[in-house]
Amino acid sequence: MLRIALVFLAALPAAAADWPQFRGPTGDGHYTGPALVTEWGPDTNVAWKIPVPGKGWASPIVSKGKVYLTAAVPKGEGQSLRGICLDAVSGKIDWDVEVLAASKEQASKMHSKNSHASPTPTTDGERVYVHFGHMGTAALDLTGKVLWTRTDLYEKPLHGSGGSPVLVDGLLEFSCDGLDKQFVIALDAKTGATVWETPRHKKASKPFSFGTPTVVEVDGQKQIVSEGSDVLAGYDPKTGKELWRTTFAGYSVIPKPVIGQGMVFFSTSFDSAKLKAVKLGGSGDVTTSHAAWTLDKGAPHTASPLLVGDELYIVSDRGQFSCVDSKMGTVVWDDKLRGSYSASPILADGLIYLTSEEGKGTLIKAGRKKDIIGEFDMKEKTFASFAAADGDLYVRTESRLYKFARR
Predict the structure, then answer these.
(1) Quick check: 134 and 153 in contact, CB under 8 A?
(2) Could you tell me how many helices (H) and strands (E) the chain has, helices first?
């Protein structure tokens, strides 16, 4: 019998109140803890709100009572790439430091939906790791001191950067899928030195993508599942050896794969997104042998799927929200939400939290019957995904970071 378990990505055990990386402790958007607010808005259940300098669509993370995020501030013709730490109780900024300075050439033109600070940071509780794609990666201590930087991995993105890093047993691992190079890499989290670098098995015709790896344990062996253009593959996180792969037609991949029911669920992104399920446990090319199902309509180009029990929830860029039977790949129900969607949904206390690019939030009860609880409006662009910790909901808009809490 295949044994599969999601793995906590931080090198050290995360505190129960932490949200230490993109999509939370297990990287799948699930929050467990005190109940979150079920209403939010610019003047509703606001514990604090603070202006955020510059621009960035990185999601906030929370660790040991601190909130971390990144931002990019114009500096001459380039960008000052910054790490920011706030006190979670008061919202006071503890530090705001320049980590890297990107030249005009490095800070290439972004896609209109992207920013120079889109990848979400991660932490092991001792250091904070920030990532700006081709412009560089760095580690900071908890006082904001820069410990190491890497700016030499690849040079030619298209539309900027987006994929976030993950931590696995002392290694910082992430995908690099630019026009010049396509590979998955592991850096020593303490020193920044390259431990391994594994090229994609072949170069796609449109090789640029923005994927975030997912960590899983299959029959006692950890794997990182990384998606790039035309391929999704499992790698040994210690050595970088490719363990298996499945191929498809798709590029500019953004959604983070999710895992459950003995399968990995992922989107093929552009041009015509499809949602696919592939059985875990294979080796080599499993494109045919381990294919489970494909859903041709309603798949996301940007937002990551959310798995809750036997149901898989997806929201397309145009706002089609679907509940899918994860075992069969059939749509149980769907609905058209307001606006366009880039942020990934989260689950808390049986409720699904969503926010549109226009800042319009929706709260939906998870289940096989459609039940929309409420709709809310931040009245400002919101591309970043939610963070949740210790009963608090964090929302990053275009100009502010909000903390929402029950009064």
Answers:
(1) yes
(2) 0, 35
